[in-house]
Fold each of these.
Amino acid sequence: MERRPVIVSGGQTGVDRAALDAALELGWPAGGWCPRGRLAEDGAIPERYPLRELAGGYLERTRKNVQDSDATLIVGFGPPTGGTARTIDFCRQEGRPWLLLDASVTPLEEAVGLVRGFIDRHGIGILNVAGPRASGEPRSYDYARELVRRVLTAPSQSSSDQDR
């Protein structure tokens, strides 16, 4: 069965905001949790992003987005570090599936197939999208935005079983 999940993210610069932008540009349902004050590295997250504020910081936001999602897509460039690594920890703790995609070695077309397969295999209705902030990986926004856009508009595809 083909699915097109609701996209959630924390609104940080980079991967988070790219996922929200792709969904919103397509008129797709999107949302998620962000820290109180709509905190992000570039200041307050703009109001155009439909995020709910959470009394807590980045880690609380990350955990809540994992908890409220069926699964998490982590778009990284190399081994996960910092908050991206903590996202994996939260997925393990919450028993949620995740797909770790290394964008530094995965061409976009291949990535689309991997993500579509992950969504279809796990019956995902709400997909949390996470990864490095823009200051940590300048390529993250463009790659993640195009990936999410294509995932939401592409037909289902089978993929290898690289998710957990």
Amino acid sequence: MRGDRYPYIAWIVIVLAILAAGCSERPVERVPVKVVAAGSLLYPLAEAEAKYEQLHPDIDIQVEGHGSIQAIRQVTDLGRRFDLVVVADESLIPDLMYRPIGGSNGNYTDWYTPFGRNEMVIAYTEKSRYHDEITPENWYGVLSRPDVRVGFSNPMLDAAGYRAMLVAMLAGEHYQDLTIFPRVIGDHFDPPLTIENNGGIRTVRLPQVLKPTGSKVAVRDGSIFLLSLLEAGGIDYAFEYRSVAEAQGFPYVPLPDTINLKTDDQSDFYKKARVILGFPRFSQIGSERVGIPILYAVTIPSTAVRVEEAREFTEFFFRMSQEGGRGWPEPLDGTPVFPWSTKAVAAGE
């Protein structure tokens, strides 16, 4: 009996040794690269993240979405250390980030690189009231009907929000009907949002807090959050980016180039409209949002922790953006310029 136990004990020792060896081999710790981005970029960033992490299993791309203004404020106001900032309005980076870091001589950043265009559209569903009547010619008439509910994002937090207002203001110029903005948006807030005319420049000054009256207009923190409300039937139409509507499969009404904020050819016309943000802090750092063509841009804050990793992911993301595709902003022509030497490799390598 005693002799029979030795093989059993030896087997136990071997098994324990194998288990001990396995426990000693811990998985490689992944390097986090933290990205704060405009909500309209969550779809393309998710694609880029998945492909990049396949090629670089030691990297963990962590993406957090906000409205573009709120995304930047995560860094400048809340002091959070993100490695990459990607926004839907290139002008926000110099306006909000070209300023000194508290207790330092350096700015939050001193550069940005644009990478894509977009355009504003009117998204809807098959459940939307009058969806079988709306066209690029009559959309503002449909949206102004009393029983039609309209949504856009908060202009204090998100670029798509003040762009919705710019579109409605420019529509008044394009269609020669200055009642469009008040009928669709302005008259449905307390106090009402009114247009000032100064030398042909139309201006809307926003209060610190937007207070919709009734259910005609709904405001959400980011353009991406409007879509769940639209899908649920809480609103009939949403001012949205074309890429977001396409990514989520929503039908949409395209708008004329004179008002959709898409093309450089209409830059002078776009400048006829502007929105003054009511948040007090913006008075010192760029409260005026003028109508300009939509351009997405990226920067790496001076407070970034993983600078090299952020640069490499930025280059990869730009290469993917140049390929375009459903849900992506329209790519820009030419080669992007970064404040560092880039690696000339193709996306996916």
Amino acid sequence: MKHYIYFLLTFSFLMLWSSCRKDFEFSPNTGHLEFSKDTVYLDTTFTNIGSSTYTLKVYNRSNTDINIPSVQLGKGNSSNYRLNIDGMAGKVFSNVQIQAKDSIYIFVESTININDFANDGTFLYTDQIQFDAGSNQQNVELVTLVQDAVFIYPNRDYDTKVIETLNLNIGGEEYETDIQGRTLQPNELHFTNEKPYVIYGYAAVPNGYTLTIDAGARIHFHESSGLLISEGASLHVNGAFSANQDVLENEVIFEGDRLEPDFADIPGQWGSIWLFEGSTNNIINYATIKNGSIGILCDGGAEASEDVLKITNSQVYNNTGFGILGRNTSISGDNVVINNAGQSAFAGTFGGRYNFTHCTIANYWSNARQFPALLLNNFIIDADENTIVTDLTEANFNNCIIYGNDNPELLLDEVEEETVSFNFKFTNCLIRFQDNTNFFSGPNYDFEDTTHYQGNIFNQTPDFFKPAENILIIGEESAAINQGLASFATQVPTDLLNVNRTAAPDLGAYQYITFPEEEI
């Protein structure tokens, strides 16, 4: 009993001491708070889409615990910003306390409807966090750039909450899939450069229609989203050369929907541009495709008279799987740069037809990977683990660079069958291939065989400017300078930067430059 009474007395004393401490230790704020920044810039967001969370740190440098009578947004409860202070969400707070020589965090978010304001498609929304009032008031400014956008998303059933999935026409029959998305309507099949497009799920182009994308358009994909060009449909990306290579005003850019600088080069933010089996006449010119899972997935059509995909003057970067993955298909590429893929930059699999001229196929992926920059094979393994083999009808690489931070950067993975062809040729290419382990053997790796190899250079430097940053223009030390065949250069007379190459063609997508001096 004595111990119980002692416990009650001790507990009561602690509670009394604690309550007294709250009453007497905190002094009024005197307007001498310090902040981690005087303005919080929230990176560009799309209308009606919540921003990331940003942090402001508030310091009490004094030797006294202080009480701030009010912390609030300048626009009060009508503000489009939201605050969180010490785990409490709101827009207006009273009696915020900071102990001596201590600090607190304030977390800031925003969701802004651009239609609430008169604008031309972009709007600078501002407010401020006000600490205290009167002569002791201190302010921290809040600034957000908001962009209007066209949103494309699947429907959600009001009662079941089930999200719409795609039905695909394959060989004349309709198949249900579990791919979230919806089919674009005829009035949605022209993407302009007036507003960016934000796509949730897969936006499918229906049979018999073409999705046309104008120069300068910006296409943003949410997580696990992409484009699907159905059987009998087409994609036409009509980009053009940009005079300003920083702004890329005429480039068509495909990327994720996170606009913060920290996400500018993060792979795997969205799915793929999927050219479904049976799609036809897909044309991509002056496009940048980055930060997806597979930049372009192209299926079927190896026997078609016209290439399933013609891609020119384009860049494909930062994909967790493949930059471009072809499966028994036909692809031609001129002035294409591919880099940074978790597997291969380019993979032509299950046979097909592939023709690339003046392309840079590189892989400087910063983590471990299983495959080289360039992979060719003629088979697939089905669900029952059966190997199915088909013809690699042709795979021609002319005046190209095939390089990376691994070695070798070329794999020719043939399953030999007497009736199946495996045709390929590398002409005047710079290739990284040094088989120190003697693992690669057989006629496919006989570099003296002019049926497959002619005029190539092996294991010399391409002298890329900044390959880890996807800047693969070559410099004065490059082994690729003036090594191209003129006959191929006349087919692709200007490089990716619109520089004429016909007089002295360099290998790859760029003519060489003198690198700017690094600033110290």
